[in-house]
Amino acid sequence: MDFERIKAWLDRADRVVGFSGAGISTESGIPDFRSPNGVWATNRIIEFDEFVNSHAGRVEYWRQKCLAWPEMRAAEPNAGHLAFVDLHRRGKLAALITQNIDGLHQRAGLPSEIVHEIHGTTLEAACLDCGDRISSDEACARVAAGELAPLCRLCGGLLKPATISFGQPMPADVVRTAEQAARACDVFITVGSSLVVYPAAALPVAAKRSGAKLIIVNRDPTPLDQAADAVLRGEIGELLPALLNA
Ligand code: NAD
Ligand code: ZN
């Protein structure tokens, strides 16, 4: 069966690359985007253009962010995040590319040098002009104190949560590093991603084209299932520890 085949690929592999989406964090209590109780069902999306061009848009964006922040901040890594830490301890994990912004892979124990956050992080806010960063704790404290759309204290530029919004370019250096890792691995394993957001979903394809085995672990079907070498359907918290532990 697929399970034993995949374990054999992992045993032989020197360089595994993990790729995670929102599904790996739902068991930590953070909703994904596309489920019925997901973020999109409950919030108006503020795209990058609106954030930059409209004060009211920025106020709404910060309101949503700071409303969700206490729960996001309190979330703990789950068995799926810890399974990748086990793989790292076995000396096999070359990189973990994530679409997530919650920082839970690092909280679980992966060194930040091998975690590539292609959609940024919600743990900080960054100035769109000078790039200076402050913690989300500090930013949301300032919002609560009445700065409804806070500005950079160094240069007066717009402060924005350090996540990538729709219409905002992804960080080119992080994407380049992620692409290099994808092309240089033996096994590429994607976990909890619907694989419909580009260019992120192009990474599994790049890995496969470079000769890696492509493994997909997800509850629902994805557009890349046909192209994969193995597909496991089910709950990440159950499947991943069984798959990645020695
Ligand atoms: P998505 O919401 O499009 O898809 C999540 C996938 O995970 C779904 O296909 C679902 O079937 C699966 N899934 C959910 N819970 C699961 C579980 N317990 N076990 C197995 N499968 C499960 O998420 P995406 O592909 O990551 O892309 C959407 C965007 O959402 C990304 O850009 C990301 O930045 C953002 N996002 C991040 C977070 C976070 O940081 N935790 C949360 C919500 C959205
Ligand atoms: Zn600044």
Q: Can you give a write-up of this model?
A:
This protein has ten helices and nine strands. It has 246 residues and is α/β, with parallel strands linked by helices. It has two domains: 1-29 and 77-119 and 170-246, Rossmann fold (3-Layer(aba) Sandwich), CATH 3.40.50; 31-74 and 121-163, SIR2/SIRT2 'Small Domain' (2-Layer Sandwich), CATH 3.30.1600.10. The strands form two sheets. The chain has a six-stranded parallel sheet, with helices on both faces. Strand 7 (187-191), helix 9 and strand 8 form a beta-alpha-beta unit. Helix 4 packs across helix 7 (136-144), helix 5 (79-89) packs parallel to helix 10 (236-244) and helix 8 (172-183) runs parallel beside helix 9 (202-209). The longest helix is centred in the N-terminal third of the chain and has 20 residues, at 55-74. The protein starts with a helix and ends with a helix. Bound molecules: nicotinamide-adenine-dinucleotide and zinc ion (ZN). Residues 21-23, 25-27, 30, 32-34, 39, 99-102, 119, 192-194, 197, 218-220, 235-236 line the site of nicotinamide-adenine-dinucleotide.
